[in-house]
TrEMBL record:
Coiled coil: none annotated. Gene3D superfamilies: Neocarzinostatin-like (2.60.40.230). Residues 50-67 have a biased composition (Polar residues). The chain crosses the membrane at residues 561-580. Keywords: Membrane, Signal, Transmembrane, Transmembrane helix. Residues 29-49, 526-538 have a biased composition (Low complexity). Residues 29-67, 507-551 are annotated as: Disordered. It comes from the Bacteria. This is LPXTG-motif cell wall-anchored protein.
């Protein structure tokens, strides 16, 4: 800022009854000169001495200040007085050459000696020319006006515009004959700001051609734009020296044409798409609780020797939790076959399903497969894209609700028939799951015959059967039997009675066991009294029962068990060598 010169009071006589004070005023940066202060009595209507101004007869030129300096830095004001004007507030307003008043937002306060030195800013932009600063003191003391010149701010002419860097990019630039797809997205930079740009797509050769599209775009404040162009017709593979191209044109302030470089588009021949890799599953239905022999997955249309991963998902959709995955590799024909058996058995869960699919990695941009996910790219190498086949949903059938049953035949049997290997007692369980393991437990109510546990497996109809008979002397008693399946917590119970005598010796089947069980004279003394000791219990020698074909009981094509009993009672089932020791009230295996 150019600082104005200062001025001072010289040799002015004092007014009658009034003291002279020095006032130095000027634009910012002006110095404050010295002055004498003749003493004088104050007017009765003022609290301090008047502030007097001196004529500017000693200034070679009027002080000047620019419009912006007056607003930003302010006009320099320097006043001197006496202590009677201590603490007085000086305010002011500017009047420009057009007569417009601008109140100063700043005020000045005198010090203890009545002096003040500071800057007053204009609240607005004054018109160029002579301006006046009118000041007032808060105590009513007179402050003379200041007159100065306001000069217009210097303006910098705008730089000459240059659009040599105007350029465009386009995507995509490669198409397949027959379709422009979603069009061509053109991005422009460094064009004329806030102005229209003509974007063109042409099919041309030297000296002639056709305009296929023309769209008007508008640049932003930085001269950039984005515009999508959809050419008319369908692209064909160019012949001879013809080509498709995209460009952008604009008119500068000077009238010159701003033209981008021309981008050539590539049109490829349409190729029949190769079949996408896919999988098939031999059986998509499984029963809850078992994968059977597993999920047999076959793949085709893969790249020769391509690696892939077969995945089993259990979730609301195929993008959920993977519960099993197996790496596979296609053969030279692009096919593979793999059996996948998840470690967790299938189950029916509300809101979840089972899906099977195959995924593999291809180079970025491959068209095969399903959705593509991105991954981190090491250095400049293209990241592989994760591809997947369509997912196949599996059906899990709830396990059939069965209510197994137990039956005993006959419910009553004589000791004679119980000792007959062609007769005995048959325990049958029905309605188990096919192949379900079933356990039989048999024991006597009297406790004179040790209990035994037998195991078998139900047939394809869910039926299991055990046949029990005695080898040696049978013990008349009531025998309790239970059946328990591995897949069913419920235990089935039944019982049968063995009574003393021949088939009809104890009466009919309904009461024979009860009437003769305790009759010591009913026949065979070994089993006459359920509460008596075994007749041969004193013999501690082991008895071995052979499992040769001649010694095994009838099976009727079904599994049999074996029951150890006191008094030499042995019930022989499926193959096995059974050994008992004749001890009182007990038999040890």
């Amino acid at each position: 800022m150019k600082l104005p010169r200062t001025w001072k009071l010289l040799g002015l006589p004092a007014a009658a009854g009034m003291a002279l004070s020095l006032i130095v005023a000027g634009p910012a940066g002006a110095a404050t000169p010295e002055a004498t202060q003749p003493s004088s009595d104050k007017s009765s209507q003022q609290q301090g001495s008047d502030f007097l101004n001196s004529p500017s007869v000693n200034l070679k030129s009027a002080p000047q200040i620019t419009q912006s300096d007056l607003q930003n830095e302010g006009y320099h004001v320097a006043l001197t007085s006496d202590p009677s004007n201590a603490g007085v507030t000086i305010s002011g307003k500017f009047i420009d050459s057009a007569g417009t008043a601008f109140k100063s937002p700043t005020t000045l306060t005198t010090d203890a000696k009545g002096n003040v030195d500071g800057y007053m800013k204009a609240s607005g932009k004054l018109a160029p020319g002579t301006a006046t600063l009118k000041m007032t003191a808060s105590n009513g003391a007179t402050v003379p006006d200041e007159t100065f010149t306001v000069t217009e701010d210097e303006t910098t002419p705008p730089p000459e515009q240059n659009y040599d860097d105007a350029a465009i990019t386009a995507a995509p630039t490669t198409f397949t004959e027959g379709s422009w797809g979603d069009g061509i997205t053109v991005n422009g930079t460094d064009f004329k700001p806030n102005s229209e740009v003509r974007v063109e797509v042409n099919y041309a050769a030297t000296g002639h051609g056709d305009e296929l599209a023309s769209v008007t775009a508008k640049t932003d404040a930085d001269g950039n734009f984005t515009q999508t162009v959809s050419p008319k017709g369908t692209p064909e593979v160019p012949k001879d020296d013809w080509s498709y191209s995209v460009s952008a044109l604009q008119t500068a302030e000077s009238g010159d044409v701003i033209a981008s470089d021309v981008i050539t588009l590539t049109i490829n021949e349409k190729q029949e798409p190769a079949a996408d890799p896919s999988i098939s599953i031999a059986d998509t239905t499984f029963t809850e609780g078992s994968w059977g022999e597993g999920i047999k997955v076959s793949g085709k249309n893969f790249e020769p020797n391509q690696s892939a991963t077969v995945q089993v998902v259990h979730d609301a959709d195929s993008s959920g939790t993977v519960i099993e995955e197996v790496d596979v590799k296609a053969d030279a024909d692009g096919t593979f076959t793999e059996t996948v058996k998840p470690s967790a058995a299938p189950k029916v869960v509300k809101g979840k399903k089972y899906f099977v699919g195959a995924s593999w990695a291809t180079k970025s941009g491959a068209q095969a497969g399903g959705s593509v996910s991105t991954a981190a790219v090491p250095m400049a190498e293209a990241a592989p894209a994760a591809q997947s086949t369509d997912w196949i949903e599996l059906t899990i059938s709830p396990k059939a609700t069965v209510n197994p049953t137990i039956s005993v035949s006959p419910k009553k049997i004589s000791t004679t028939d119980f000792e007959n290997e062609d007769k005995g007692v048959t325990i049958t369980g029905k309605h188990y799951a096919p192949g379900e393991a079933v356990t039989l437990e048999a024991s006597s109510q009297s406790g004179k015959v040790d209990g035994i546990t037998l195991h078998s497996t139900s047939d394809k109809n869910g039926t299991v059967q055990f046949t029990l008979y005695a080898i040696g002397s049978a013990v008349a008693d009531t025998y309790n039997v239970t059946l328990t399946g591995d897949d069913h917590a419920k235990t089935l119970k039944a019982s049968f009675q063995v009574y003393t005598g021949a088939a009809n010796g104890g009466g009919d089947d309904d009461n024979a066991g009860g009437s003769n069980a305790g009759n010591s004279n009913g026949g065979n003394n070994d089993g006459a009294d359920p509460g008596s000791d075994s007749g041969n219990a004193a013999n501690d020698d082991p008895v071995t029962v052979s499992t040769s074909a001649d010694d095994l009981p009838r099976t009727g094509g079904l599994d049999f068990g074996a029951l150890y009993a006191g008094a030499g009672l042995v019930v022989l089932g499926a193959a096995g060598v059974l050994v008992t020791r004749r001890k009182k009230n007990s038999v040890i295996e």
